[in-house]
Design brief:
With 252 residues, the chain is of the alpha+beta class. Helices cover 33% and strands 21% of the residues. It contains nine helices and nine strands. It has a nine-stranded antiparallel beta sheet. A hairpin with a 2-residue loop joins strand 6 and strand 7.
Length: 252
């Protein structure tokens, strides 16, 4: 229990609840904010599990007990290091870069809970994390609202990206499967699709069966090529949420 762990911390410092109250009052006076003050009765209730803590009072306890504030938050199942992990859970509709939490390669076929077992990282961090050091492979999640390459690559697909192949190539291709699919970093977003460069305009071109339209970005100011999609694991049927989004997209 968090309360018992807080009591253990207090006893380890050999501090009484009354001394905690006096110390917290001094902190509150300097702060000019009474929310940082901890009464001895409230602390006793907190340690017995009869009261809920607050960010202000936890700050005071971290100072008094000389422990890291973030460690006290973790007692209440709040871990700020998990922020990136849950961004994908909070908004699975966005196309994003992902990396598994232990740095090992992600499975070729993601399980249904893949969103819960991966964490998000910025493009620069993902390149540095480099799960496959020999081939510079990173991974991306295709958002539930991204139909650029539909139905060739369906929403919720796991994308395997080679960051070495981050240039537009004039190479010829014989069919749509040979045509390079690129993963693009935009400003505050990501995209995946076929690309063409016309002057300083980068065109992200959708699959010919997709309801999406061609998008134009100033290159490289507003769009940067992260790498080429060299593999993907895509569902055989549409996810329920993406099916709804697909109908909305076609209706526009």
């Amino acid at each position: 229990m968090p309360g018992q762990q807080l009591k253990t911390l207090r006893n380890g410092r050999n501090i009484t609840v009354r001394e905690v109250e006096h110390a917290s009052r001094r902190i509150a006076d300097v702060k000019g904010d009474r929310r940082f003050c901890i009464s001895n009765g409230w602390l006793a209730q907190l340690e017995n599990g009869a009261s809920e803590s607050s960010i202000h009072k936890l700050f005071s306890l971290s100072v008094i007990y000389r422990v890291n504030y973030l460690d006290l938050l973790r007692l209440y199942n709040v871990d700020v290091d998990e922020k990136e992990k849950y961004e994908l859970v909070a908004d699975p509709y966005l196309t994003q870069l992902v990396s598994d939490s232990d740095g090992s390669s992600l499975p070729a076929s993601p399980n249904p809970c893949a969103e819960l077992t991966t964490r998000l990282v910025p493009a620069s961090d993902a390149r540095n994390a480099n799960p496959d050091r020999k081939s510079n492979i990173i991974y991306g999640h295709l958002g539930l609202a991204d139909f650029t390459m539909y139905p060739m690559i369906r929403p919720k697909a796991l994308l395997k990206i080679d960051t070495r192949q981050n240039k537009l190539s004039p190479d010829t291709w014989r069919n749509e499967y040979e045509r390079p699919i690129l993963f693009i970093e935009l400003r505050q977003a990501y995209a995946c699709g076929w690309c063409e460069l016309q002057g300083n305009q980068l065109l992200i071109i959708p699959h010919h069966s997709s309801p999406a339209t061609v998008r134009h970005f100033i290159f490289p100011r507003d769009a940067e090529i992260v790498g080429r999609v060299v593999g993907y694991s895509t569902p055989c049927v549409d996810h329920e949420a993406s099916s709804i989004e697909l109908r909305r997209t076609k209706a526009r």
